[in-house]
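--- STAGE predict ---
source: upstream dedup step, 1 unique chain passed
mode: sequence only
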Amino acid sequence: MFITGTDTGVGKTMVTAALTAALRAEGCDAGVWKPVQSGASLGSGATDAERLVELTGINELPERVAPFTFEAPLAPMLAAKHAGVTLTLQELIAAGKPLAERYEALLIEGAGGVAVPLSDDTLMADLIAELQIPALIVARSSLGTINHTLLTAAFLRHYGIPIIGVILNDGDGPDSPGDPSVATNAELIEQYSGLNVLGHFPRLPTDVHTDLLIHTVRQSIQLTPIKQALELNGTERQGGKHEHNFCL
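--- STAGE serialize ---
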């Protein structure tokens, strides 16, 4: 399952960690993969991979979770070029295969949104399509999210990528009383996109920990559609329909 966002900074990492922790708490051997990340160096404690490992409690090295890490705060293609590296889909996929083989289910977190450039001729959506897996959209709960979410869904559909649903994330956005759109955004996203909003992920304290993430998912997110998507793709993988071992 690929977890993408309507933009950068919408809370993909926190939602990915929370879903992974919740699945693991229910007995699923779930792992995480961040194909490419930029904006900090490994060892700084500020990378998404380090946060994913810490928040999920997975016994995994951050450099294995994120095989390609670049310090420049730029889109993956530009950050890689700044470091003298040219990314290719083949290299990205090959770097993630050990994780796909190690875990029963793999939750893959993208970088930014679906139209973020990975190379001179590929976008994040090309990676999702090549992996042949469904996507889950993480979107802000605040004003503007309808437009961003509908555009993201349309782009994924253009690539023929199945969409599991949408999770709205409060993140650091305004509280509901200060933004009246929060009360109706989910309903309108469902109306205009035909997608299900699977929950409203609340703002969490800065000292968040794994148990709190598990509790939050159980209280606020419909986990059943996500489990069903994972089970469906696991069956397809066993049937040999996919070339790559990424169908979870």
